[in-house]
Every structure is written in C-alpha cells, then in structure tokens.
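Hi R.,

Here's the input for the cytidine-5'-monophosphate complex you asked about:
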Amino acid sequence: METVLTIDGPSGAGKGTVSRLIAGELGWNYLDSGAIYRALALEITEKDIEHGSIEGIVEAALAMDLRFECGEERAVLLNGNDITDLLALESTGNTASKIAAIPEIRAALLQKQHDFLQAPGLVADGRDMGTVVFPDAKFKVFLTASAEERAQRRYKQLKLKGIDANLAAITADIQERDQRDSERQISPLVPAVDAVYIDSSAMSIQDVVKEVLSLVR
Ligand code: C5P
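And here is the predicted structure with cytidine-5'-monophosphate in place:
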C-alpha cells in the first residue's frame, strides 16, 4: 500500500517548499491541494460564475481539466492553459479561501485529490489532508509559524517572482485567511490529533525538512 505523509498548516508556513523537497528526496508524488482550490477560483473567474452559485461552481469543479507538470520548473495547466503564475496571486488565494468554505465544493474536489495517491508514496500538502482527505495517513505533520514570519516569507516569495507586493497588505490578508480557514464549519484548519506539531518560525527550511524526514525514515 502507498504510504502517505500529510503536511497541513496555515498559508506561508513553508508547506509547499518543504513538501516538494521531501517528495523529491523520497521519490514520492506530491499533492498541492491549495493549487486545486486556487485553480477552481481562476476557473470561476474566467467563466464569470458567481461566488454564490454553488451549483455552478460544483459543475465547474467536476469539469475542469487540471494538470500538474513536473519538469525542471512546475507548471499547472487548466484546460490546456498555463496558469502557474496566476495561481500565486493573492487575489487567487483569497477567492480560493472563500469557495473552500462551502461543503459541496470541498466534496466535489475530493476525488481529484485522492487521484494523487499512487505508488510508492504521497506527500499531501494542505489544510485538511490529515483530518479529512487522508485520515489514515501513516505520517502527519502540522507545520506552522507566526503570522509575521509567514507574511515576511510570502512577501519575499512574491518579490522573487517579480510580483508587486505590500507587506502590510499581505499580513492583513494572511490574518483574514487564517481566521476564515480556522473558523469555517467544514474541514477547518486544525491539527489532526495524531499530527506532529512543528513551529518553523525560527527554523530554516533545511531544518524542517530534516525533522520531517527523520519521522518518515
Ligand atoms: O495553500 P494555499 O494558500 O494555496 O490555499 C489557498 C486556499 O485554499 C486556502 O486559504 C484555503 O482556504 C484553501 N484550502 C483548503 N483546503 C486545502 C488547501 C487549501 O481549504 N486542503
């Protein structure tokens, strides 16, 4: 059976970088579940589907053709179009967080996430990987950091990508998103009871990777 390592936590905790490095190190598949919610946010914006139209969004979720290409640089294709850069926008994350609070939409995206479970193993990164999507995962991590540290990291990340960014706006956005993700009724952002809790505020990415790898090995 495939082994699953789930890495959940709030935005900007370093889950993406850590998960990718670990998946590369172990030769496992990688699921970036946030990118699936973000892609759906782009799809409904592109198709002009209203945020209140649950039926329309569910239909779009089931119909969208989403591909993750792992070359030297990761590329994400939505219905054949490269959406990699659009996915990273704060506005995309914000819309994603709004639609992610709707149970029917989460249910519609479940299968797409389960499809990533392939041999020899999977590193699944998100908010509810260890609690809802892969509750039987063998290894579970909850990775967090202070809101200030996460805002700084996201700011640097966007700047590196050449995207215009404002630290105060990012901090406010992260706090708003944390609150919405933690307080929603369905699949709120909470550590699984059997997750190992890591606060990475004062840790380097390499230290976090080492600590998580030591759990799995
Ligand atoms: O992780 P990322 O910032 O890309 O996720 C964007 C948004 O998608 C999050 O703020 C969250 O609301 C939602 N999300 C979720 N469940 C996941 C992954 C992401 O609700 N497993």
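One thing worth noting: The longest strand covers residues 3-8.

Cheers,
M.
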